[in-house]
Design a protein that fits this description.
alpha+beta, 60s Ribosomal Protein L30, Chain: A, six-stranded mixed β-sheet, 2 helices, globular
Amino acid sequence: MSQSYTQLSPIPLFHMITGGPTPVAPFSHAVECDGFVFVTGQMPDTPQTPGVLPEGVEAQTRNVMANLDTVLEGIGLTLANVVCVRAFLTEFQRDYAAFNAVYASYFPADRRPARTCVGVTGLAYDALVEIDLIARR
């Protein structure tokens, strides 16, 4: 962690996680204000292999979730703190069911965050999926 998180701050805190995913653009991994944490959309590569993606939406979804988890852990949170998710799929009709099957395994059925999932025309690295989220400390 980059600093202590014992108090909620009305001043935004900008987080870059050591060992976290390699940014594909100029952004912070997460921005925190008043106990809310806005995590930047994560790609399906890994910190060890930036820009290299696995094949298939299932493997890409697992990598995205691992990257989100890395960012959350870097600021002392977990997926249990997530309140809202936005998911983006480039092959919506083809991949929606497979994506949902993997995604659902990360949250208990009675504690799933609010979510939006949309089809898009393109993502960085020609990824099949990207996910961003909002968490609450």
